[in-house]
Amino acid sequence: SASVGQAHARHSTSIARYPQFVNALRSFPSLNVQQRPTTLMITVPNGKGGDCQPDVLIDGARATFNHLLDLMSNEIGGVEVYTHAAHIPSRFVPAGIQPQCGMILVWTKYGFRNR
Known about the structure:
By secondary structure, this protein is an alpha+beta fold. Helices cover 18% and strands 35% of the residues. A six-stranded mixed beta sheet has the order 1-2-8-9-6-7. The longest helix has 6 residues, at 21-26. It is globular and about 35 Å long.
């Protein structure tokens, strides 16, 4: 796993080791992943002693935590986790929106093919 500042990245080969994609997410040290039968909640430390919910982008499109439940490990090309808003690359920050938390970027193998 590569660590760039406060970013953690994993590629398809390391993610594919996990039968469930949610368990791959659990392997990121900065993510607190709580799974219930039909919902997923993910938080990261907010740097002020509390926590906050990071934004999720799947192939560049805004998504919810529950969308992550639908993904299979073998569909994932890569994952990047930014624990702090300040570390999110500007190209992933929607115009006019100031992120208050971190971001989880998920790239599927389909997304890679379409680019």
